[in-house]
Amino acid sequence: MFDFPTLQTSRLTLREIVESDAQNILQIHGDAEHMRWFGSDPISDLDGAKKLVATFASWRKEPVLGARWAIELSDQPGLIGTCGLFRWNRNWKSCIMGYEISPAHQGRGYMKEALNAIITWGFREVQLNRIEAQVHPDNAPSLAILAALGFVKEGRQREAGYWAGRHHDLLQYALLNGQWRTENAV
User: What's the whole-model pTM score?
Assistant: First the structure.
């Protein structure tokens, strides 16, 4: 385990997800229409949300290793979404990125801002070389965020995901540390 890193942006605080966030997790993950691209079935009750909080916390332990942040507005406490880096492969210096935000907070640039913070953290603090993302081909908002962050489409994974009672193709995207440093040089 590691001490959980709290990250700040101009408008957001990214902090550890705790059990008291379960109700907000349920509001986001319980909305079947909103979560149709997430990659898992919707959560149906508060116990399911608490289990998801515990799952996110377990990522900090071997062998899974990863981090999932609660996203909240800096001037207004309360989880509005989550984002994370998980399935870290230490030998390959790579991981997968995942994220979701409440419908009420979409379209304001919060997710791009949050992902920028965790990508920077991953490349600088964890010395990752590669961050991957798998996205449903019909998830236009997520595809737009990845493009804006500089991710490159590498291909299509046929029927790689299974939720809502059926298999789904996923598009494979990746961002490399050298590319990120060049585009985000300070």
Answer: 0.91
Beta bridge partners of 53: none
Contact present, 133 and 170 (Cβ < 8 Å): no
Q: Is the peptide bond before 63 cis (omega within 30 degrees of 0)?
A: yes
The label of the residue with tokens 């029927």 reads: 159
What CATH superfamily is the domain 7-132? Gcn5-related N-acetyltransferase (GNAT) (3.40.630.30)
Tens of pLDDT along 123-182? 999 899 999 999 999 999 999 999 999 999 999 999 998 888 899 999 999 999 999 876
Q: Which amino acid belongs to residue 9?
A: T
Q: Cite the DSSP H helix spans in the chain.
A: 22-29, 46-58, 110-125, 140-149, 177-183
